[in-house]
Amino acid sequence: MTPRSFVCPSPDCSHSTGGAAELAEHVNTEHSGEFRRKDWPATEAGRASLARDRVEDKE
Ligand SMILES: [Zn+2]
Questions:
Q1: How far is the CA of 53 from the centre of ligand 1 (A)?
Q2: Coiled coil where (predicted)?
Q3: Confidence (pTM)
Q4: pLDDT in tens, the chain (59 residues)
């Protein structure tokens, strides 16, 4: 059995972490705006990042 890990969905990045929240933070920091693109993979972290960003945008 291998430990569960979350790998960055960006094709140019091999960053991985042990938690979806950490990955979402990495995406927001390292790939700001990139996950909005149409070709961004539909991953848990990607959707979480989008949802969180929208909530923050409502201010
Ligand atoms: Zn990355």
A1: 17
A2: none
A3: 0.54
A4: 556 788 888 878 889 999 889 988 898 888 887 766 666 666 666 666 666 666 555 55
Residue 15 contacts by C-beta under 8 Å, 6 or more apart in sequence? 7, 8, 23, 26, 30
Residue 49 CA to residue 20 CA, distance in Å, equals 10
How many Å lie between the centroid of ligand 1 and the Cα of residue 56?
Answer: 21
DSSP string for residues in 1-39: -----EE---TT---EES-HHHHHHHHHHHSTTGGGSTT
